[in-house]
C-alpha cells in the first residue's frame, strides 16, 4: 500500500538541487555512496527533512512502511529484536485499528511509530493546510487513544509523493519528514521478490548513513531480514534510530 513509487530506481534520472514536486526519486551513481536524489540533503534541512545521513561511518537507519497487517510483522520484529536493531514503523489509520497489539509491541521493544497519514492519500495534491493537518492529526489522535502516549512527530509521505508546500506544512506542525536512500520493489503481494533479488538491491546499494525503506507486508522481508541484518553486521554496519540521526544533525 505504501509504496507505488514509480521511477525511484531509474538510474538515468537527472537529479536537481531543489525539491521537485511529485515522486521522491533516486539515482544510484557510485557504489558505496548515497544516491543522488531530487532534493539534496542540505536543501531538505530547511524543512527538517531527511533522506540519508552524510557520514563516513557505517551506520544504517531501518524504517518500515505499514499500510496494513498480513501476518509478516511478527517475524520482522523477531529479527529486529535478535539484532538489537531499532526501527521506525510508519503506520496508517487502518494499521492501528486492526493491529493495535503489534503497535504496542513495537513500542515495548524500543521502536518508534511514525505518521504515514490516516488514509494514505496523495498528500502532494493537498494544497489546503487544514486538509493536510487533518490527515496527520487524526492519526495522532487514534495513536494516543490506542497506546496512551503521544505520537512521535516523524512523518513519511505516502508513496513518496510530496511538494515543497507539504514539507513546510509538516515542519509547521512540528514534524520531521523522512524519505529514504535505499528501497526496492517489495510491495506487490502477488509478485514478491526472491531472496536473491532482495539481496542484490539491499546489499549492492548499501552505503553509510542509509535510511532504508522496507514494507512490513512483504513476506520476502519477513523471511530474509534476520540474514540481511547479519550480512550488514558482517560488512561492519551498525543500526541506529532516527532519533540518533536527528540528534546528530543539530
Q: What is this structure's SSE topology?
A:
Elements: E1 22-23, E2 26-27, E3 36-37, H1 41-45, E4 49-50, E5 59-66, H2 73-82, E6 87-91, H3 93-98, H4 100-108, E7 112-115, H5 129-147, E8 154-155, E9 161-162, H6 164-172, E10 176-178, H7 195-204, E11 210-215, H8 219-234, E12 238-240, H9 242-249
Parallel strand pairs: 4-10, 5-6, 5-11, 5-12, 6-7, 8-10
Antiparallel strand pairs: 1-9, 2-3
What does this structure look like?
This protein has 250 residues and is an alpha/beta fold. The chain has a single domain, classed as TIM Barrel. The chain contains 9 helices and 12 strands. It has helices at residues 41-45, 73-82, 93-98, 100-108, 129-147, 164-172, 195-204, 219-234, 242-249, and strands at 22-23, 26-27, 36-37, 49-50, 59-66, 87-91, 112-115, 154-155, 161-162, 176-178, 210-215, 238-240. Strands 5, 6, 7, 11 and 12 form a 5-stranded parallel sheet that branches. The protein has a 3-stranded parallel sheet with strand order 4-10-8. Strands 1-9 form a two-stranded antiparallel sheet. Helix 2 packs parallel to helix 8 (219-234) and helix 7 crosses helix 8. The longest helix has 19 residues, at 129-147. The chain starts with 21 loop residues before the first strand and ends with a helix.
Tally of helical runs: 9
Biggest sheet record: 5 strands, parallel
Average pLDDT, rounded to a whole number, is: 91
Relative helix content: 25-40%
The CATH architecture term is Alpha-Beta Barrel
Count of DSSP strands? 12
Number of domains: 1
The CATH superfamily is Glycoside hydrolase/deacetylase
Radius of gyration: 17 Å
- Fold-level CATH name: TIM Barrel
Q: Give the overall shape.
A: globular
Give the low-confidence spans. 1-20
Q: What is the succession of H and E elements?
A: EEEHEEHEHHEHEEHEHEHEH
Q: Quote the beta fraction.
A: 15-25%
Termini distance? Answer: 33 Å
CATH class label:
Alpha Beta
Query: Which structural category fits the helices and strands?
Result: alpha/beta
Organism: Lacrimispora xylanolytica
Domain NodB homology: 58-240
Protein name: Delta-lactam-biosynthetic de-N-acetylase
Pfam families: Polysacc_deac_1
Amino acid at each position: 500500500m505504501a509504496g507505488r513509487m514509480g521511477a525511484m530506481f531509474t538510474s538515468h534520472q537527472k537529479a536537481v538541487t531543489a525539491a521537485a514536486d511529485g515522486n521522491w526519486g533516486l539515482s544510484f551513481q557510485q557504489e558505496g555512496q548515497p544516491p543522488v536524489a531530487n532534493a539534496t540533503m542540505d536543501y531538505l534541512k530547511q524543512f527538517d527533512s531527511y533522506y540519508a545521513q552524510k557520514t563516513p561511518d557505517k551506520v544504517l537507519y531501518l524504517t518500515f512502511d505499514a499500510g496494513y497487517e498480513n501476518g509478516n510483522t511478527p517475524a520482522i520484529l523477531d529479527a529486529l529484536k535478535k539484532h538489537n536493531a531499532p526501527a521506525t514503523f510508519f503506520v496508517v489509520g487502518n494499521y492501528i485499528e486492526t493491529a493495535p497489539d503489534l503497535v504496542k509491541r513495537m513500542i515495548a521493544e524500543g521502536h518508534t511509530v511514525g505518521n504515514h497519514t490516516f488514509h494514505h492519500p496523495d498528500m502532494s495534491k493537498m494544497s489546503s493546510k487544514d486538509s493536510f493537518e487533518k490527515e496527520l492529526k487524526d492519526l495522532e489522535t487514534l495513536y494516543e487513544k490506542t497506546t496512551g502516549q503521544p505520537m512521535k512527530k516523524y512523518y513519511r509521505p505516502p508513496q513518496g509523493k510530496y511538494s515543497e508546500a507539504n514539507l513546510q506544512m509538516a515542519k509547521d506542525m512540528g514534524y520531521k519528514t523522512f524519505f529514504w536512500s535505499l528501497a526496492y520493489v517489495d510491495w506487490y503481494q502477488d509478485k514478491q521478490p526472491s531472496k536473491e533479488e532482495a539481496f542484490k538491491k539491499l546489499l549492492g546499494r548499501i552505503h553509510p548513513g542509509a535510511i532504508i525503506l522496507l514494507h512490513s507486508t512483504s513476506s520476502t522481508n519477513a523471511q530474509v531480514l534476520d540474514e540481511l541484518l547479519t550480512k550488514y553486521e558482517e560488512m561492519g554496519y551498525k543500526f541506529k534510530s532516527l532519533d540518533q540521526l536527528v540528534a546528530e544533525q543539530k
